Amino acid sequence: PILLNIDNELVYNRFYKDFGPLNLAQITTYLLELRSLLESGAREDRLVVHYCSSHPEK
């Protein structure tokens, strides 16, 4: 499989104690990366696996 992790590239900047989502620019960056991986993996019939760390600050 093709492994995808964004913990270090797309980091949410907290405001006080919230845990909110990534902003739209970060989501767009993620989707473009995912699209690229899916298109490259489709030629090889490979799965893309998104994984994340167990650290809550990520």
From TrEMBL:
<dbReference type="Pfam" id="PF14671">
    <property type="entry name" value="DSPn"/>
</dbReference>
<protein>
    <recommendedName>
        <fullName>Dual specificity/tyrosine protein phosphatase N-terminal domain-containing protein</fullName>
    </recommendedName>
</protein>
<dbReference type="InterPro" id="IPR029260">
    <property type="entry name" value="DSPn"/>
</dbReference>
<dbReference type="InterPro" id="IPR029021">
    <property type="entry name" value="Prot-tyrosine_phosphatase-like"/>
</dbReference>
<feature type="domain" description="Dual specificity/tyrosine protein phosphatase N-terminal">
    <location>
        <begin position="4"/>
        <end position="57"/>
    </location>
</feature>
